[in-house]
Amino acid sequence: MSSNPLNIGMIGYGFMGKAHSNAYARVNHFFPELKLRPVLKALWARNEERARTFADTWGYESVETDWRRLVERSDIDAIDICSPNNTHREIALEAARNGKVILCEKPLARNVAEGEEMVKAVEEAGVPNTVWYNYRRIPAVTLAKQLIDEGRLGRIFHYRAVFLQDWTISPELPQGGEGLWRLDLDAAGSGVTGDLLAHCIDTAIWLNGGIQSVSAMTETFVKERIHNLTGDVEKVGIDDACAFRARFENGSLATFESTRYARGHKALYTFEINGEHASITWDLHDLHRLGYFDHGDDSAVRGWRSIHVTDGDHPYMDHWWVPGLQIGYEHSFVHQVADFLAGLEEDETVSPTFAEALETQKICEAVLESARTRQWVQL
Amino acid sequence: MSSNPLNIGMIGYGFMGKAHSNAYARVNHFFPELKLRPVLKALWARNEERARTFADTWGYESVETDWRRLVERSDIDAIDICSPNNTHREIALEAARNGKVILCEKPLARNVAEGEEMVKAVEEAGVPNTVWYNYRRIPAVTLAKQLIDEGRLGRIFHYRAVFLQDWTISPELPQGGEGLWRLDLDAAGSGVTGDLLAHCIDTAIWLNGGIQSVSAMTETFVKERIHNLTGDVEKVGIDDACAFRARFENGSLATFESTRYARGHKALYTFEINGEHASITWDLHDLHRLGYFDHGDDSAVRGWRSIHVTDGDHPYMDHWWVPGLQIGYEHSFVHQVADFLAGLEEDETVSPTFAEALETQKICEAVLESARTRQWVQL
Amino acid sequence: MSSNPLNIGMIGYGFMGKAHSNAYARVNHFFPELKLRPVLKALWARNEERARTFADTWGYESVETDWRRLVERSDIDAIDICSPNNTHREIALEAARNGKVILCEKPLARNVAEGEEMVKAVEEAGVPNTVWYNYRRIPAVTLAKQLIDEGRLGRIFHYRAVFLQDWTISPELPQGGEGLWRLDLDAAGSGVTGDLLAHCIDTAIWLNGGIQSVSAMTETFVKERIHNLTGDVEKVGIDDACAFRARFENGSLATFESTRYARGHKALYTFEINGEHASITWDLHDLHRLGYFDHGDDSAVRGWRSIHVTDGDHPYMDHWWVPGLQIGYEHSFVHQVADFLAGLEEDETVSPTFAEALETQKICEAVLESARTRQWVQL
Amino acid sequence: MSSNPLNIGMIGYGFMGKAHSNAYARVNHFFPELKLRPVLKALWARNEERARTFADTWGYESVETDWRRLVERSDIDAIDICSPNNTHREIALEAARNGKVILCEKPLARNVAEGEEMVKAVEEAGVPNTVWYNYRRIPAVTLAKQLIDEGRLGRIFHYRAVFLQDWTISPELPQGGEGLWRLDLDAAGSGVTGDLLAHCIDTAIWLNGGIQSVSAMTETFVKERIHNLTGDVEKVGIDDACAFRARFENGSLATFESTRYARGHKALYTFEINGEHASITWDLHDLHRLGYFDHGDDSAVRGWRSIHVTDGDHPYMDHWWVPGLQIGYEHSFVHQVADFLAGLEEDETVSPTFAEALETQKICEAVLESARTRQWVQL
User: Fold this and answer.
1) Chain C within 8 Å of B253 (Cβ-Cβ)?
2) Residue B70 has pLDDT above 70, yes or no
3) D285 touches chain A (CB under 8 A)
4) What residue of A is the nearest CA neighbor of C307?
5) Partners of chain A (3+ Cβ pairs below 8 A)
6) Smallest Cα distance from A5 to chain B, Å
7) Can you tell me the distance from the alpha carbon of C125 to that of C131, in angstroms, rounded to the nearest whole number?
8) CA closest to A251 among chain B residues
């Protein structure tokens, strides 16, 4: 096993805390060429009992209930921030001040102002940093990036993406607190825009370049919900749904939409990109496939190809099983850790950094502003 | 065979002239309960030789090269307008003045002003009229309407539709003239908005009610093309692509998009509607299927259903073959004729009328205005 | 319209009588280059009232209730046999004796002995003849044939086909008589073997060459049913299900299966052929698509292609609409008539003839023999 | 972390050695309720260097190059046999003699005689044992089992399964030795029958009960290949393809087929089961979905459901992520370990045992005998 430890201090133990812990635990098994080895050194959680339970399950060596202590510990090399969005800024600033490597869950922050402080902090501290926009490293999505970079699509005309869920349709669902902070404006910063569209935007600008302008609308279908932290019925501040159009710098047009009110869809993130010569589609619900249409094929046998992205010459797949056997969602985190560790070993920046994630944050903020003002917003 | 003739005077012999002629020729074979029988009495085309060839193929009894003569002939009961959009108004006005039943290809007109004159004309003349928004009568689409009317979806949150094509990507393609008038602003009135989005809008307001406001963008990717009528390179006036958002009167949000630059899609008209209890999807490329998700199903076996709309208890299907055997695109026209004839027999209005098609026209115009002004437009 | 009439005498007015009548009525509209024009001259049915109703709907000029009279009429050029299988032999023999062109529904006969007499009769009489194995002329299936003939698949290893239905699962369903003669051994000759597997076999030997040997099993799940002709509960003599393996002359292996007890499938005829370089799949429930996998594609973007067989350069499709707009089941009959008429015009044999259909009959008989003897049967 | 260690001695480090090691490493992270904790104590491989590399990657505490030593070590609780089929018997017998828990890769053995010895050995020794027919524990497959056990399908009429691959089409591929022992008759015992159909049979008898009789054919397309162990061109002894029919004890009919010559398929294991009331389909290439057709649905909205098996109330899925996020192939091994450990804790037998796997072995042997004799074989 790799001999150089990278001691991880984990902030949070929820859905993402589990996904990241798993990535650290697995990366050296499947990427044995790495010299760095993440060590689950310490876990922070407000509630000590829960912290101990999670630490025990995952093998964290110690727990802290004061995150400042964790961030200051000299035996910690890297801080992974998996706590709610309203905590990202403060923890990241402290971690940077302490010279820690920082891995932060997406979105970077609740807004651009917070994000700018964070970028400044890591850049001034000179600490390696990344934001967990993990979908870039689903092999089919990485393959899409390769095909585009190879010029197979030619001039791009259109980009479209949706992220559809249906889990908040019931008005009985409360907002806020454990497991539901994403519905609380103060904790989350926004609703589907920061939670779901941020993923769509990150992929889009990675694949198709910068966005020039946006025009958006948002809606909150259920106006009031009980708040778990106060017990009162309170106004819902987040956007339940958001749709926006964009113009990219390369002249292509885009439509984006996200909602938590699309009955029948759990986590249907799909994107499509149409170029002069070829088009690509992808769908998170069948994440191991990539749709590809190549106009260069003989006309009689031209058709959308369903690429089963499980072969050794597909991105990352030589690290896993044999052709035909699919991997799943969690593997995208393993890939991000693997790439990030390789970057640390070579002292190279690995995308997406805080600075890159700030671009997504700016677009999210422009989208929300456009929805409020009912005007196009330039970036 | 049905004994009461309805003598048809057909204006035009292009793609739609063929589709409608086929509908008239077949309707009594498959809907033998009808008493009215369309008779292909006369065909108009500017070019006499082409008119004779088409008339000979389809069995039209006579041809005219002056449409006014056709519209005035006393042996003609109904005028079917399949000529380019810029001719609809004048022909419809003359036909109404002559007391003819009128069937007009979509879109109703190039703009609202023309459409309003046409509605006024048919209403004052009291002549039965319809516009060929044929997709309503694809059995899967009609089934969607039934399911919505039965209340299976509950409160509607979202509607989304796209109509994607790829046939005008080449800059070498000319505009205007025979077969290409849809690319000529003067003949067509608009680009994809009137040609393709008009279909999407017609279906949407039929299924989901009125639209309150829209916000749009358009693009013309190829700015100049040779014009077939002049031989000169001329500015392209139509919209190659158009995307818009809408708010429906029932509070639901919508996104619409159409383009002729989506490589890999020939005529991919899809719509999806998300309700509180159920959702529906449909796709013109597999028009004999309907996607249906019912949240009321047992949770362990809940999933999107692919309904193969070929059974005797599906709309219109008892008129055709046996379960499992699909019909195609052209049958939607047969169904529209069948319903229209039944309406004539019973002296009942059959949807969509000119007046209903004017609603779609208004939305198209609002969309184009919004794209121009970059502002939301109220309806 | 084409000037040379081919006067049709139609035997039967059921499902196939309707499908064929439609083909005759439409062929000159969509294949205007044909000089021959089918004329619906006379219809035979045992029941005069039903005959008149059908004749009236479809425009048959006259009706006969004695098929011998029809077959002898000098104003009839061609006899189309759509009556139950147990009538094929006798009618065909009389029609041949009278020098008529003969178009016979599949299967050719109830057994090889009958089929051999029929082949002998048409060959001695020298009359043009065909059997309605219409699936060959679904454009996607014809395209499969073209791809195979071009050598794109290379050496063939495997062929597999199923034809799955679910319409006879209820033990309450009677056998025999109007609409149910396919369940009556005497009328049909066999169950799914002659009715459904005959289609699969016809396609298979057309695409992949001769079959050398077969090994089969059959089953009758519901052993007794009320017989509509007697009113008594009688033993069911037909095969409800049949599965067989085969070896082709080219060395490839095959599996075939058919049943009327596969819940969820209306008419799911699928085939797949695997070659050294490429593979093909097809499915009657989405008959306008062809699956194609080409191992010659770049490995990173290799995948099954879904070819939407609606373009002008796909077989037959230049006669219909525009790319993206699908045709349906009934069009296969129009194509067969079109090809058959073109053959008559040029005095050329058009496949499949009676002689070719006899090959399929021999394989069906071998399959039933193998099921009975539980031994491989050589052909 | 769970406090009771179960010390694992792993035999082999190939594809399955990796899959099982991963399962041991992950099971306590995702099934924290387990009290037993697998410890990767020792690894055997013939080649010491490779053994050390693998042990280092996965954290095995020690290596052995003599498997007998490993099996005798008192600090080892359980032996996991991942070496080629020809080694299973001997190692299992020794492991049983030493009182070890045994987990054996499938197929149990090369033939029934070996399998019977192994069953006898574990039963006499009274050691817990299992065979890694892991597909039973893919959540969608487990869900199929639940639906069948709940009686949702009613009387079963049909079962069909295929396992199609395309990796041995090239005649240049050698047989035997590292990574290719599956092509060597002596090492593997058979070709696709034991390697792939064994999986299909195990699932089938688990879902649908015992098989009464089989009728099979096999083929070896490439007759000679270079043998890696000798360097000589040698006769290929394995079956490249095998198709068989079966009758189940419940009266249903089945077809099974497997090949490594189906171009376009990497590991396409599919099964379908048709019952009186409902049908089920599954496909390894999209293993997180289950097809389900329920005839009890309202007829107008009846259709095949695509169940996205990612929800908390689907088997095993409450242990992983959130609805909509899929797991992959490797998780089936984690589930098998989890169930096996739970069984050990409760002293309960967990299926499939050696004895159950022997049933599959007997069917495989009957299939091969039938192919040889060209006769039906009773079980």
Assistant:
1) no
2) yes
3) yes
4) A303
5) B, C, D
6) 44
7) 17
8) B221
Question: What's at D57, amino acid-wise?
Answer: T
Distance (Å, whole) CA B204 – CA B145: 10
What is the length of chain D?
A: 379
CA dist B336 and B331 (Å) reads 9
Mean pLDDT, residues A344-371: 98
CB contact under 8 A, C253 and D241: yes
pLDDT digits (tens, 9 = 90+) for C44-60: 999 999 999 999 999 99
The rounded radius of gyration (Å) of the Cα atoms in chain C is: 21
**Residue D81 near residue D94, CB atoms below 8 Å:** no
- Tokens representing A271? 């994107």
For domain B136-378, the question of CATH label 3.30.360.10 is answered with: yes
Across the interface, do D255 and C264 touch by the CB < 8 Å criterion?
no
Over the stretch A302-329, which tens digit does the pLDDT of each residue have?
999 999 999 999 999 999 999 999 999 9
More confident residue, D156 or C178: D156
Residue in C113, C94, C96 with CA at minimum distance from that of residue C189: C113
Torsion angle (degrees, nearest 10) of CA C257, C263, C264, C268:
20
- Smallest CA-to-CA distance from B317 within B83, B141, B67, B97 is with B141
Residue type, B269: Y
Residue to mutate among C152, C301, C310, C318, with most A CBs inside 10 A, is C301
Interface of A with C in 191-230 (CB under 8 A): none
The CATH homologous superfamily to which domain C4-133 belongs is NAD(P)-binding Rossmann-like Domain (3.40.50.720)
Within an 8 Å CB–CB cutoff, is residue D324 touching chain B?
Answer: no
Q: CA-CA distance, C207 to C146, in Å (whole number)?
A: 9
Positions of CATH 3.40.50.720 in chain B: 4-134
Q: State how far residue B266 is from chain C, nearest Cα, in angstroms.
A: 5
- B318 CB within 8 Å of a chain D CB: no
Could you tell me the two tokens for A341? 């560790």
CB contact under 8 A, B295 and A261: no
Contact C305 A307 (CB under 8 A): no
Among partner residues A253, A259, A262, which is closest to B241 by beta-carbon distance?
A253
B128-139 confidence digits (pLDDT tens): 999 999 999 999
Give the integer Cα–Cα distance in Å for A64 and D103. Answer: 40
Put simply, whether A188 touches B (Cβ < 8 Å) is no
Domain with CATH 3.40.50.720 in chain C: 4-133
Q: What is the pLDDT of residue B1?
A: 47
Across all residues in chain C, what is the average pLDDT?
A: 97
Q: What percent of chain D has pLDDT over 70?
A: 99
Report the topology of domain D4-134.
Rossmann fold (3.40.50)
Provide the shortest C-alpha distance from residue B245 to chain A (in Å). Answer: 8
Going by pLDDT thresholds of 50, 70 and 90, the confidence category of residue D179 is confident
CB contact under 8 A, A293 and B263: yes
- pTM, two decimals, is 0.97
Measured in residues, chain A has a length of 379
DSSP string covering D292-346, please?
EEETTS-GGG--EEEEE--STTSTTGGGS--TT----TTHHHHHHHHHHHHHHHH
CATH fold of C135-378, please?
A: Dihydrodipicolinate Reductase; domain 2 (3.30.360)
Token couple for A352: 């997406």
As for the ipTM of the complex, it is 0.97
CATH 3.30.360.10 positions along chain B are: 136-378
Which three-class secondary structure state does DSSP give residue D375? coil
Q: Residue A1: which pLDDT band, with cuts at 50, 70 and 90?
A: very low
